[in-house]
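Exercise: predict the fold of this chain.
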Amino acid sequence: MITQTVPALSFVTMGISLLFGIAIPLGLFIFYRKKYDCKIKPFITGCITFLVFAIVLESICHAIILAGGRQEYIMARPLLYGLYGGLMAGLFEETGRFLAFKTVLKDSHDTDNTALMYGAGHGGFEAFYILFASSISNIVMAAMINSGNTQLLTASLTGDKLSAMQQLIDTLVTTKPLAYCAGIIERFPAVAFHISLSVIVWFAVKNKDKWYLYPLAIFMHMVLDAVTATLAAMKVNLVLIEVLIYVISIAAVLLALKIWRKNSGSNSRVDV
């Protein structure tokens, strides 16, 4: 039986994370809207595309592929786990970008800033989903723990599901308050990465002779997710993982800028 409680400071940092989950997409929208006069449609398209491809379709694919004990087999092998997760994320999210640019945003090919606003929506919605949704869940569960109502969380569970829930409760109790802000630090390079990949895929769609940029984006996405997931599964120091995320994201930004300068017309501009 859980006798400890979640520290009050944890509620504060969870709340800060929640606020950033709202502030990041809102800030991105306002920035690109004001600075580059971007249209609203690409932002909304980016949000919806992430929801459909990364959350719905990718989850369905995972449910099919990982059924029958395959999930345990893959998760027990950090490298395989990282490569699988990275490949799936790259395939679904970059294909979502590609199709969105080909269809919904095909009438916006004359304005390259569309790629920036789409990336803001795609990456911004991911930030909202990760920071806001997880914070809400954590706050609700932490409140139930502190009020002595953990039985409401475990009453209908048995076996592995009960063990998983118990482990989650223990994690909420023992996690250091500042750890809940780690996701905020990670979101900044992640958003920059999403905007960069949006630019890369944008020119793959816009210029048929640049088609190879689409599989390049899939590969880049796979590398980032595979490296971070593998190291996390191996319980490598979180600081090192965050540094690698920043390094890979900066490399993606530099590549996207290079591609932009070579392919963008006078209709669009990006300030470095």
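Check your answer against the key: The chain has a mean pLDDT of 92.
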